[in-house]
Amino acid sequence: MNTAPTNPADARARLLEIIKDKAIVHGRVTLSSGKEADYYVDLRRITLDGEAAPLVGIVMRDLTKDLAYDAVGGLTLGADPVATSMLHASAAAGEQLDAFVVRKAGKAHGLQQRIEGPSIRGRRVLVVEDTTTTGGSPLDAVAAAREDGAEVVAVATIADRATGAGERIQDEAGVPYLHVYSLEELGLA
User: Fold this and answer.
1) What is the mean pLDDT of each run of 10 residues along the chain (189 residues)?
2) Which residues contribute to the annotated binding site for 5-phospho-alpha-D-ribose 1-diphosphate?
3) Reduced to 3 states, what is the DSSP secondary structure of residue 83?
4) What is the pTM of this model?
């Protein structure tokens, strides 16, 4: 029997416990940005976890509840399970939310599209990510969504590494940047 919390405050608290327990890895690592860190927040251990993934959807929907958007997605792979969790949380709440995937490069075969899923042309979309360091991945996704004719309303992430990504996204993309957990909340500051 699933006894996972469904109210956003309880879901947020439980998700934080799971992240601290399963996703924070201490030791020297090189991040996708090329920067080095003394820890790694491996949120795929969370976004693909049977208990945590539904909480991700609840928490991310609560974070963005004041925004109006029709679809959610971002650069593969970090954004994919976040978007899917939000899609399922929306369905569980009796609402419809589409998800989309932004490829790192367009396909050379088939329809040769860079964005997969229901069309986002002419729609309001939210770009998501699991962990944000430099902001490069969400900025790439924002640019791809705009090229595809979507209106990007914001960028939202589960964990912000406090390395200037939020400011960069706001400055370069001109959209709000939201995050669920800070380094302080994760016990990393």
Assistant:
1) 80 97 92 81 96 98 98 96 98 97 75 88 98 93 97 98 94 98 93
2) 103-104, 107, 109, 129-137
3) helix
4) 0.93
